Amino acid sequence: MCGLGILDIRRDGLLLALTLETMPRQPTAIENRIENIVTGLTPVIPLLKELADAFDTPFVPAISITTASLIAGVRTIKNKEDCVRLLEDIRVVLYAILDLHIRSETPGNLPPTMLHHIGKFTETLHQIYTFVEGQQERIKMKSLFRHSEMNILFKDCQKGLQDAFMVFKVESGFDFLSDISEQQKKAENMHHELLELISGLSDETSSDQASSMYHNLNDSQLSSESFSIIPSQPKIFHGRDSELQEIAKMLQCQSPRIAILGPGGMGKTSLARAVLHHPEVIGKYEHRLFVSCESAITAIDLVASIGAYLDLKPGSDLTQPVIRSLSAKVAPLLILDNLESTWEPLTSRGGVEELLSLLADIPHLALLITMRGAEHPAKVRWTRPFLPPLKPLSDAAAQQTFLDIADDDNDEMKKLLEFTGNMPLVVDLMAHLVVCDGAASVLARWETEKTSVLSDGYDRRSNLDASINMSLLSPRFTSLPGAMDLLRLLSILPDGLSDLELLQSNLPIKDILACKAVLLRTSLAYNDDKKRLKSLVPIREHVQHFHPVTLSLVKPLQMYFSILLDLYQKYFGTLQTAGSIKQIALNLGNLHQILLQGLKPQNPDLRNSVACAFALNMFSRQTGRGRHALMNHIQPLVQLCGPKLEVLFITEQFRVQFQSTINDPEPLVSQAKSRFQVLNDPVLESQFYSTLGFYYANRNNSKAKAAMDKVVELVNTTEHINTHADMLSYAANFYWISGEYNTGKTIARKAQRLAQLAANLYEEAHALRIEAGCNVFLGEYGSTVFILQRARQLLELCSLSDSPMYYRAMDLEADIHLRKSEYAEARKLHMYIAQKSTAKDNPVDHAYALMGIGEIDAAIGTHGANPDLENARKLFTSLNLQTETFICEAIQVEHELRNNKDLKTTTLKKTLEKCLQWSWTGDPQLTLYSLQRMGDSTLWPSADFRWAATYAFIYLAFASKKQEKLALHKAIRYLGDVFLADNDEKTAESTFIAALDGFTSMDVHRGGQNA
Asked: Do residue 439 and residue 477 come from a single domain?
């Protein structure tokens, strides 16, 4: 019995063990939390994508991509407790941000101050990504961090999340949910609300919110004027039939040049808009362009406005691109409206007339301008007979215009019309007054007030001022005191304001949308085709003269745009912020006028105005427009603003002169150095010296190197980690392009580490690319591909997969494949870049891609290489990139030699000798490109053998000096050809073996086969 009992116990134990083995393992508490995180975060990703697609919201694409990456890797983390706590908090913040967009006073669009907080949260999210990635088993990056550094990073992540909790919870009033089922339900509700919000967008309700209209526009235009789609046909248009028919007839002639002249308020713009929609004009002119010139200060601004409408990429001077673009169009009609804004100032008149002359030289272009006055601009053969300056409307036309607006035909209306002088704008204003106040009331006030208004003499201008003044005294207008303040503000804003800007800029105007409605009802303002609130030029001038704006009104708007510029500047290039770029571009004319109000010595807030003007100049420079005109106003004021702003001004002077030369830079350098003696600001000092280093890079290499050495020294004296990484990357980049590859590599690695400690993904990618560039020249190809792929991964997390930095990392990867003779892989990458980057939007990377394709074709002897190389060369020439232009010419020589053995080589040799002479003292890359082709005797006819042999020795010496490994072994192989030709077979064999060993170590296929 006892034995049986023991057997039973053993049997039962075995069965229990087998049962336990076959039962599924219950997930741990931490694993359940991870699954809840994945379940809670997954539905957020499509919501974020829809939000970004609909509203072009800054930072949201980067948040979406980084969150998706965190979800993908969350199950493989080791330090699960800390990581899970962070990810749970992310989930809460993301729902709050989505809710904030939906509940915003301007739905889908947040004010710049709140965008700053979202940018900060994006940085925190990248810190969390860095921390979590360091905890993944498959990642070796943890070894780069000390244990104490990981603890610091974790605490920074926690603090960033707590800051986000405080900001978004308070601002959005979001109810933080802990139950996962409730969060899923909330996500579904949010999705429904977001879809309703998006579907509610329309041209009638949206201003410069991210409606579909803006997704198809150039991201960086001069101002709102530049975006002008063809304006609509005037709805009320009487009394100009004869002028309209005459202009339509003139436009049927060859090369018409027409000016619509006349006093302000006479209806010139309305007539031009009617011309635009005339059937005969539509039938003849395939391309009709209507460009308002109100925002253009100079001829350069004017041509930028035209270029923006032509969808040209911004540039410091678009004159020639505009001329080329218009010349290439079939039957173009260009209308320049309100040209007097740019032509009247004597300082800009010559430039405007020169531009008109160039436009008039395009034989098939029809040119029509509208201008106040009776004088035609010079340097153009205007079509004769001239169109007479516009006169007032006939009585019948004025009456019909009045009735179309007021629908009030009585004796009082006829008396009021007598006072209008039949000026179209005055008729319009008077009719709208009648709509608001009634004809009897308006007539009574007119009789009372006209004497004082017209006492200085009766003329059309006085008539206009009187009618505007009547509108300003209307009971409807005066019932809202803020309406006058809003009109004062509009009087200096040629770009007008959107509802978004009216609501978000904290203007000291009560019931601002009601004030807007009053301005619209009284016809003192109007909504343009982009739904921006504007006032006509005659009204703006009247208000500026009689009711000038005060600084207290301007200051909040300046602060609003200053925050927007700061947002752009802080995240320039590092995160996707296209939405802020568009909004700034829509207001460039406004910013110019706003800052002019503040750039006065007596302004107590002068420093902020100067700082904002600096930021505007940086935006202008970084978006390709070059130096902003306000820099001239800043120069005499900057010494009143303290040493820091003085240094910033000097630094900007060097930045805007990268493509040209300052006559005598040394006084500026000395001035900056003297200010640093009292500033003790190593960050500002390092920024100055890095800028100075790049300024000198192609002018004085020793001064450039001294400046960059100073940067490295300064970086080691400040605790600002982010600035360290940025400045070290600049220095490393300089040493790379200067041919000091080991130095550049060492500094780039330091920059990477600092960027990792700060979780600055963009700067880490930047430094990785520079290290990769140095590695390429040092012949370290194997690991470098992985470095570049890591850089691209980090850029993707910043939503920068279509940025120049991303393409340039890809270009380096293609260069590695080319060096290893992996032509198909290299071509695939270059083709991708060429297709994604157009010659118009990203000419630099497009040209590099074409050059890469041409270099591959030249190397393998393909006949089709030359068109790609020639297109690349033309682009580089237009961009004033001399090195790249010469490289194209060097590759073209190789292409000619491989495809035509019988050609005369004198010109080809001179081309390479010219390249070598230009590059010898300061451009190692071009020197290597030239010597590689000069020293390869197999490329040249036998008559040129000794010439090539000489350069083979020079190639060897230069490659050895620069430690360029591939070039060194190519030179050794070339010398093998020389020794073999001289029947020194033993030496030839030794050199070929040395070359073969080198090519094999670098995995270079074609070089090894040749050796």
From this structure: yes
